[in-house]
Design brief:
Layout (H helix, E strand, L loop, with lengths): L9 H52 L9
Pathway: Energy metabolism; oxidative phosphorylation
Membrane topology: Single-pass membrane protein
GO molecular function, one term: cytochrome-c oxidase activity
Length: 70
């Protein structure tokens, strides 16, 4: 019998720990990108195109706002 007990299972524990840490950090960073950056950019783009559509709608109606001339 040896004086020091054999170390068993440390590689398996390390691999599982690395995988769990990787998924957790990836999820946190992905969530930060989605809610912190992506949603803001998409909101600005949607507001721009909404405003552009309103402008085109107003231009198509004409200067008299759709009223008939006498």
């Amino acid at each position: 019998m040896s004086a020091i007990a054999p170390i068993q299972g440390t590689l398996k524990k390390r691999i599982i720990s690395d995988i769990v840490t990787g998924f957790a950090l990836g999820g946190v960073m992905g969530s930060y990108w989605w809610w912190g950056y992506h949603k803001g950019v998409i909101g600005k783009r949607e507001a721009f195109y909404s405003q552009l559509a309103e402008q085109k709608k107003a231009e198509a109606a004409g200067p008299n706002d759709g009223e008939e001339e006498n």
